[in-house]
Design brief:
The complex is a heterodimer of chains A (about 450) and B (about 400). Chain A is mainly alpha-helical and about 450 residues long. Chain A has helices at about 10, 25-35, 40-50, 55-60, 70-80, 85-95, 100-115, 125-135, 140-150, 155-160, 170-180, 190-200, 235-240, 245-260, 265-280, 285-290, 310-320, 325-335, 360-375, 385-390, 395-410, 415-425, 430-445, and strands at about 205, 210, 220-225, 225-230, 325, 380. Chain A is built from 23 helices and six strands. The radius of gyration of chain A is 23 Å and the shape is globular. Chain B starts with 7 loop residues before the first helix and ends in a 12-residue tail after the last helix. Chain B has about 400 residues and is α/β, with parallel strands linked by helices. Chain B has a single domain (about 40-190, about 245-395), classed as 3-Layer(aba) Sandwich (Alkaline Phosphatase, subunit A), CATH 3.40.720. The longest helix of chain B has 25 residues, at about 285-305. Classes of the chains: A mainly alpha (about 450), B alpha/beta (about 400).
Chain lengths: ~450, ~400
Amino acid sequence: MINITQLDPAQAWSLYQPESPDGWTLRQAAHLYRRGGFSANREQLEQALTLNPGEAVHQLLNSAEESVSQYETLAKTMLATGNANNLSAWWMYRLLQTADPLREKMTIFWHGHFATSAEKVTDPQLMYHQNQLLRSNALEDFGSLLHDISRDPAMLLYLDSATNRKAHPNENFAREIMELFCLGEGNYTEQDIRELARCFTGWEVRANRFRFNRYQHDKGEKNIFGQSGEFDGDAGVDLVLAHPAGPEFICRKLVKFLVVDEPVPSVDLIAPLARQFRENGLQIGPIVERILSSKLFFSNDAIGRKIRSPIEFSVGLLQSLEVTTNYFELSKRLADLGQKLFFPPNVKGWDGGRTWVNSSTLLARANLVQDLLDREETRFAGGGMTDLCDKHELHRPTEIVDWLQTMLLADELSPEVRSGLVRELESGTDPRERRLRQVVYLMCTLPEFQLG
Amino acid sequence: MTLTRREFVGLSVTSSAIYGLNSKAPRFLVNAAEEAQKQDRVLVVIQLSGGNDGLNTIIPFHHDEYRKNRPELAVPADRVLKIDDNLGFHPELTGFAKLLEAGQLAIVQGVGYPNPNRSHFESMDIWHTCQRKSGQRHDGWLGRTIDQLQNDPSSDASALHLGQQKQPFALTSQQWRVPSVRSLEQFRLQGNKNGQAETIKKLVATSRPKSNELLDFVQSSTTTAVDVSQRFKEIGKTYQSKAVYPKSGLGKKLETVAQLIDAGLRTRIYYVEVDGFDTHAQQAPAHEALLREVGGALSAFTTDMIGQGQGDRVLSVCFSEFGRRVQENASAGTDHGTAGPMFLAGPMVKAGLIGEHPSLNDLEQGDLKHHTDFRQVYAGILEQWLKVESKPILDGVYDPIQIIKS
């Protein structure tokens, strides 16, 4: 096993080319889909095995153009209600239906990165607009993304920057663009924040649109990162983009999101990615492709070494077992698990990792699955769990438990836990369908299922 | 270190059985049990997230600099609730004024730390861990406290977090998993299958030879979750509050804390949060509502605890990650600042103002200078209230502020 803290960085990010067939099995394919998407059903996993890992990653990055009209029509209906909770359900539906899972996954990444909450931005239209902005830039140019988000009305409202006058500039946006969006704490001074805040004076939101009010803009000279000039807001954003700390900050966050929760990777390990990101002009897609097709990504130091987010937990379960259900009810429950889409907890977004897990969220995870399994609308491959088993020609209890393990878990269960589940399936007087559902429920409450 | 807390319910039943049987149980046993419970002092931490504007909480209403820097936001002198000739509470803090009048509120002024950081997240981490970013942050100050307080794995959890947000870093312990509880109603396993919880517990507790740290963490957290949910099923049925709690988020949380204390839970530390203090724009209405919420809830909680006969063993403390800039900004709000007041409530506190109001004439980068380190307040809480040695917890020697009546 590779030790992530002592890994040779060049090796770690080199292309994964398995030398034997057991280096590219359903386990690795499922891992790729869990991270580069949410999960996959059996057919999708088997299809991936007809490619090599690099090709499978390439396919994720180059998914066929989605027919978006169905989502847009649905979004209009949701927006007409004026209730952002409906927007959460809408996105949940899109995550489950999408033909472009990596783009959705990365849209969630940027939603957490440029966190904006409908709790404060009460017009769902603005939240939807931001969501589209994040989606269309999710794998493209980070510079354009940052420029766009800096003028995004939802963002400006969220960071109290709907008015910004030159007399006493509001520092909130200037602070967060450096601390949370681009550089990380410690890479700038309080003076840089105050000067950058002056660049953004005159930036306003009027009637839900960005507007530049030149009468309120401070045209004077500013001094930021040791450079002086009569910088305006866009020039300020460019200065932040040119700061040397930026690429490492973003790449580190991508590695945490896509590869491992812990331990914290060394500066050396991130360096090759940061260098490539800087040299390619901050293009996101190629970095994501390199991460997902790397040796480190497919190693045992990455597989099963992340705690599933509530979205990965729920959407993953549904996709793996070909489930359809009531998406409104499902998305309502996500708040109890700690991740309600369009409602991140604060401007830092979701911290992820161990913070997903506490006694309340774990009980909520178990209860979400219980509710899903009890719900009349819930279907597995169009029928019951019995039908799903029939479809995949699973008969013996051991076959069923092992199939579920492959579909749901990153790592194999210990023999004792496995036989405990087999016993649940074999024994008892409940009808078979009920016992099957009980096994799915128990599997989802296991510590192993919380890891992805 | 094992984190399994099986038999946990069993032991709690033993101690309540002693109370229940006090006419028949040997008197010395009853006394010992009562004494033990009495000594189990409780700390309730209330985190004001976002950076509370201390200057509009404890207001230097006569000060010229205050009026000059706050043309929009200054509270008129005739509206403040006067503490003395110079300082007063924000008019919405009637709850605090009432507590002070009853001798149940201490106000520690000018609290902060050297070389202040104005990032919410960084500053909060400093308050939670007592470590700067360069230091090793493995656990929080309260996590280290419960490592000292708890040595019996079968007892109730030493600390509980009430709330929906992620768990505060302050509660991270090397040895224990602190439960987070959103509400008592939500905190249970659904489903009507008999023995479901036992089945889960058995499968979860089964050993995993190929485990890793992350898996261990989820495993022990799951065991804690199921254990605590089973314990909670039995409690809270007899509680009748002795005060009217405001119908706010904090009011509900503190009422739940009261219910748990009343139920005889052996938990020593409760942690709750109120968010929204990051008032960069249109501060006045938001800040007013928050102060009303905090003052109302804390005053109701203190009254309730006294009414339940628990007052003498409960201390509450409010803190925020920083105060705000002296000069308001152009959005009728305030930006991130530094020093601010902390509040301690309960019948045992040394009531009144502690320390001077930070000077408005001697600012640093437009911010108030602190004169009291927050770790001095922590040291007071640890040494005088929880009766544990503060040095290992705070990673240094801090002169404790006298916060408890001598």
